[in-house]
Amino acid sequence: MFGAPIAWQTDPMSTIRGARERARIEVTAAIKDEARRQLAAEGAAKLSLRAVARELGMVSSALYRYFPSRDDLLTALIVDAYDAVGEAAEAARDRTGGPAGPHPGRWLAVACAVREWALAHPHEYALIYGSPVPGYTAPQVTVGPASRVGQVLIGVVRDAHRTEGLAVPPQDPLLRAEGARMAADLADDLPPAVVVALVSAWAQLFGLISFELFGQFTRVVEAREELFRHAVHELGRSVGLLDGRRPGGGAGQVSGAGGARA
């Protein structure tokens, strides 16, 4: 009767630690939710730990145990936003065929998922793709999450390169060295001209979304989804997605599975 504890007995300290961890997770989530509400109401520049604590009925010193500074809270919100849009892009890629394609369809699905996330979360989109927050410098921890959408787009093009080839765009002589550098950093298995086109397409994708979200299309574009889909299709062609067609004339070489590497 005084032997080892039977299997169903638990360590009281382990139970206490588990309860504390759950409580910490819940409080952290509540702090972030209130901070997002303040972002929507006041903007990132006016985010205040004291105001968040006041709205949650906490003393400021208690909140500082979760986020020592405003910048720490901003960083957490930024990482969450990048992860959320990255997850949306990855999910769209995964449910629209596999590595064998259809590659233009996967490209379009990813872009549309990013746009839909932005329209559903405009204040979080503005936090990561809008004006910089005065006095805030993003730390290294944000770099990985920030790259997720770009990595999805690169992956779609890489799959096309491996399975059916790419219509490699002509290389701008002025960007030859920069293209080689970017290819070495971002995707050394793709032709440098394709990587240059990918970076341009990535920037234009978010430019399209930002113009729509921040009102630049007002009184200019009414069929915004249709324009977006058309523009994204053209961006796909610019990076070499074949869309069932081989390039003709001066459109460039076919690289990868469909031809010799450019």
Verbal overview:
The chain has 262 residues and is mostly helical. It has two domains: 18-68, Orthogonal Bundle (Arc Repressor Mutant, subunit A), CATH 1.10.10; 74-132 and 139-239, Tetracycline Repressor, domain 2 (Orthogonal Bundle), CATH 1.10.357.10. Helices cover 62% and strands 2% of the residues. The chain contains eleven helices and two strands. It has helices spanning 12-42, 49-56, 60-63, 70-95, 103-120, 122-129, 143-146, 148-163, 176-186, 192-213, 224-238; strands spanning 166-167, 254-255. α1 (12-42) packs across α2 (49-56) and α4 (70-95) crosses α6. The protein is elongated, with a radius of gyration of 24 Å. The relative contact order is 0.11. The model is unreliable at 245-251 (pLDDT under 50).
Helix content: 55-70%
CATH fold topology of the largest domain: Tetracycline Repressor, domain 2
- Which structural class best describes the helix and strand composition? mainly alpha
User: How much is the average pLDDT?
Assistant: 88
N-to-C span:
78 Å
- Output the radius of gyration: 24 Å
In CATH's first tier, which class of the largest domain applies?
Mainly Alpha
- The H-and-E topology, N to C, reads as HHHHHHHHEHHHE
What fraction of the residues are assigned to beta strands by DSSP? Answer: under 5%
Considering the protein shown, what is the CATH homologous superfamily of the largest domain?
Tetracycline Repressor, domain 2
Figure out the total of helices: 11
Largest sheet: 2 strands, antiparallel
Number of strands: 2
Poorly predicted regions: 245-251
Instruction: Give the strand order of the largest sheet, numbering strands 1, 2, ... along the chain.
Output: 1-2
Q: Write down the domain tally.
A: 2
Question: What is the correct CATH architecture of the largest domain?
Answer: Orthogonal Bundle
Shape: elongated
